[in-house]
Amino acid sequence: MKKGSIVLVLFLIGNIAFSQDLQFAVKGKYTRGVSKEKLHMANMLSDIRSGYPSSWVNDYTSTEITVTSKGKVIKAYGLNETLSAEQQSLLQTADMGSDIIVDIGYIYLNPVTQFPDIRKIHFVETVVPDVEAQFPGGHDQLTIYVAQNAIDKIPDNLTKEIPRAIISFTVSETGEVMNAKISNSSKHPEIDNLLLQAIMRMPMWKPAENAMGVRISQEFEFIVGKEGC
Fold this sequence. Notes:
Elements: H1 6-9, E1 10-13, E2 16-19, E3 22-28, E4 33-35, H2 36-41, H3 45-48, E5 60-69, E6 72-78, H4 85-91, E7 99-109, E8 116-128, H5 139-149, E9 165-171, E10 177-184, H6 189-200, E11 208-209, E12 215-216, E13 218-224
């Protein structure tokens, strides 16, 4: 096939890689993450979300935090940026891999009408391991593995036809790749199978760990194609 040296066809921007015309990435199954250790130490909303706009939110109407704890969805309420005792306690029970949902109501003085408006802030953080699972050799070796075993085997004439394909999988407490499945199809069965097999044949990873050094499982996604394709 076309490919030649991997060094010539593969380059990285952040955690996203490109091979020929195809964009791909392997990453933890979350958008923004917060560790259990950080949640245990949290006293303020800004301890949960870095960059939280503390400086311009002054008059709160309410703060609501929704947590999944032992499989049950539970809410806790507060009055301002300082977490209530109930909120702090709830955060410490959050399930690994679950979402922390934060909804904030505050008063904004409209500079034109000079009347106060009630506005809202909404954000989500996913509970992630304190030490995330790692492919042998690190992220660069992971990218090369995926390119060689999946991306570079996709025919040139199909690279621009692939919608966003996602393979989800779990790295277990022992570092084994498990539960690989197609979460979003490429619409080409042969490509779906190629991507799936590349993940299933991965070598053992270094497993994730919590703050106490106990090995835990972690969910990942292998994403191929641009968002919105």
